[in-house]
Amino acid sequence: MGDDRKAMYDGWSRTGEHTMEWARIANAFMTQAFASGCTVAKCPCKNCKNRLRQYRHEIQVHLCKDGFMPEYLVWHEHGELEHASESDGNDDEDRMDEMIADVGREYEKESPPEEVQKFFRLLATSDEKVHEGTNVTVLQAVTRLMAMKSKYNFANNCYNGILKLIIDLLPSNHKMPKDLYQSKKILAGLGMNYEKIDACENNCMLFWKEHENDTHCMHCNASRYVEVVSDDGEQVTTKVSVKQLRYMPITPRLKRLYLSQETAKQMRWHSEGKRESEDKDIMVHPSDGAAWQALDRFDPEFAKDSRNVRLGLSTDGFTPFSTSNSPYSCWPVFIMPYNLPPNMCMKEGYIFLAAIIPGHKHPGKKINVFMQPLIEELKELWQGVKAYDSHKKCEFTLRAAYLYSIHDLLAYGIWAGWCVHGKLCCPICMADTDAIWLKYGKKVSFFDCHRRFLPSNHPERRDIQSFRKGRKVTKGPSRRLTSEQKMAWHEKLKESVEGGFEGYGKEHNWTHISFLWELPYAKPLLLPHNIDLMHQERNVAESIISMCFDFTGQTKDNLNARKDLADLCDRPGLEVRTNTSGNESRPRAPYCVKPEERKQIFSWLKTLKFPDRYAANIKRCVNLNTGKLNGLKSHDYHIMMERLVPVMFRGYFKPDLWKMLAELSYFYRQICAKEVSKKMMRQWEKEIVVLRW
Length: 693
Known about the structure:
Elements: H1 7-10, H2 20-33, E1 40-42, E2 53-55, H3 56-66, H4 96-104, H5 114-126, H6 138-152, H7 156-169, H8 180-188, E3 195-199, E4 225-229, E5 235-241, E6 243-247, H9 251-257, H10 261-266, H11 269-272, E7 282-283, H12 290-298, H13 300-304, E8 309-315, E9 331-337, E10 352-357, H14 367-370, H15 372-383, E11 385-389, E12 394-398, E13 400-407, H16 409-416, E14 436-437, E15 444-445, H17 483-492, E16 529-531, H18 533-548, H19 559-568, E17 577-578, E18 584-585, H20 595-606, E19 622-623, E20 628-629, H21 634-648, H22 655-671, E21 676-677, H23 678-692
């Protein structure tokens, strides 16, 4: 076929005097490209290079004027499927034109839903070129500029200035918008709008639905709008809201995933996709886990259609302004569709920003107030909404369900409604805990609480010297409550006169009842809340490194810890010593390196080199003068914990201590792997109790 089509290039002329053979091949190409009855197709000219879709007459003009793109002897982008390469679903190019054409083909065959028709009517009106000398459309130019504004945090005036410079460089008949306002008007019709919902200053309520026209909070009587004092000394109420929730509905964006033919196909990967390993013991995707399968058993009809979406949720507070300014913490809420393959579901392009909870402080137990729009939308998605599948070219009922959330521990407590401070801080053990209060450390400790998780005949249960002195452990492991049992507990809670629930801090740590329990499918959720492994691994790595290097002011092995150790344990060699002058000191522990050994390790760290994009330049964080590690990020601790800790302490610690660190490092490597063995996880669940302590 390649030899037959050499005239595609040999027969084309810049002067327009193309050969008859070139014209025959060009006509054959046009017949092939529009054989399916579509109105637009990818243009293979030297300028478009199959990146843009054009109408039939436009492609003819482009080919006559510019000729075919190089090395396109096989028309794999235009129906010759036997030569087409399969997409891996990880293309970073702008796929908007493909999404338009995927659904646009169906206009002449059947009528899509009104919502889809409205979307494509908008795109059709916006599909005009910036000017006659370019193939870039106004919509493409504006979306790229707005993406740059978001990515690089352009100020509004900066965006207007850049746009003015671009306009000055364009011909006078250009179609570009003149400012940010006009740019937003173009993008507004894409259906990605967000709602501004006024909130009470004290987070008591949203001025929403039946309270949309209220001017004061129904609970605390705080004003909805900012009140100022006029020049006459009178108090004037403005129309500026004191606090606003930005909510971005997720239903239109879930529907939009199915408007792209390739993405619609990938959304069924969890059920129909091919895995590299056929071993049922290997987990590579959330669908391989028990939480996903429990939801499927709860509603077989939901599980039957692989297009139904399982959603993950994550939130945390961050300070958008400089830390030198007054403190301000806002909370973005992100949604992840887990139907997609492992290499796509956590990519930036498929993570939805659902809401931005305003500050100045974290929402605390009043987070339910801000989540009202989301919970209502989740309920609607469970019942189902109409959507259009461009891969199967049909309308279907799209359903979605919350699967679990991922947070750090503090956000976990806010989201779950369980306070993670105090003696009952563990959200798993809950009231069934053996935590103790440290007299000198002034904090709660879970020291020696692990032995209850050992087998009943384990010898360490009867050890009265290695752990808390004189203490044997006969108690069994704490019982993990199911979602149904937690909901039953909630029904028994009684509100206290002072606020909160009776028995708080003694019988339980419930601060509020999470909105998630309102979902009709809350009972089968096995893991409604989860701790982010990144935060947990960083905390463990930071504690180990600061303790082993004995960093002053950072190590948890301080004087107060040694004093508590004297009260709790039988380890006289580690107790605080007092000299004749009354000064207290700590004997060097066997898990701390000496100053000269620390210098040797730091000198070795200075020589380390990693492959590109594997790790940061850790040697920049090593300060040989102060003997400390400065500026390590979460990913740096990830590399240190899983790769460097077993190496850098080998030979400096006794074999049994080094082996414990090496096994802990191996444990984190296993649970952070792309493929996880269920059998190995069950084994680690038993061994980590001994290993960690």
